[in-house]
């Protein structure tokens, strides 16, 4: 719970306020689109490096193309969602952030696991991942429920 007892007084946090979840689903979708456009753009310079490495290694370096996009995405997620802002660039633009329900900060590993669970869930249980948000409290998705996280508006 986010309500804490301090000197016999119940203290609530912003995650207890229902207004913190207004429009979160729509904002998450738009943030996702923005973030993966950014990942696509970040992949270009790395692809050039892998191409040059492939020439230097007589083609062996080109095997890195198979892991290039996931590696760039993981680095992006680790450095943005795992930062002090607890939001990727797209999430910041949409005014949302990822929070843990226990109040601790999101670290890089949790951010990456959150993203990997999202993608794994979409591969295995495509409609269920997002449909859960229609019925779960605080508009949480399946991977949010598994990790004890919630996406909320950062401006409230």
TrEMBL record:
Q: What is this protein called?
A: RDD domain-containing protein
Q: Which Pfam families match?
A: RDD (PF06271)
Q: Where in the cell is it found?
A: Cell membrane
Question: InterPro entries in the record, alphabetically?
Answer: Pra-immunoreactive, RDD
Where, by residue number, does the polypeptide cross the bilayer? 29-53, 60-78, 116-136
In this chain the RDD domain maps to: 27-147
Q: How does it sit in the membrane?
A: Multi-pass membrane protein
The record's Gene Ontology cellular component field reads: plasma membrane
Organism, by scientific name, is Mesorhizobium wenxiniae
What's in the keyword line of the UniProt record?
Answer: Cell membrane, Membrane, Transmembrane, Transmembrane helix
């Amino acid at each position: 719970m986010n309500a804490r007892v301090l000197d016999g007084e119940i203290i609530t946090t912003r995650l207890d306020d229902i207004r913190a979840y207004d429009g979160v689903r729509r904002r998450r979708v738009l943030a996702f689109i923005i973030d993966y456009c950014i990942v696509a753009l970040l992949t270009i310079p790395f692809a050039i490096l892998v191409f040059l490495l492939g020439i230097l290694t007589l083609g062996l370096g080109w095997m890195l193309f198979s892991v290039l996009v996931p590696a760039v995405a993981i680095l992006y997620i680790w450095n943005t969602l795992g930062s002090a802002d607890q939001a990727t660039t797209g999430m910041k633009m949409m005014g949302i952030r990822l929070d843990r329900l226990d109040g601790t900060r999101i670290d890089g590993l949790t951010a990456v696991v959150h993203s990997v669970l999202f993608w794994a869930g979409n591969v295995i249980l495509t409609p269920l991942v997002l449909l859960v948000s229609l019925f779960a409290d605080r508009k949480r998705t399946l991977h949010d429920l598994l990790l004890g996280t919630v996406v909320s508006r950062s401006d409230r």
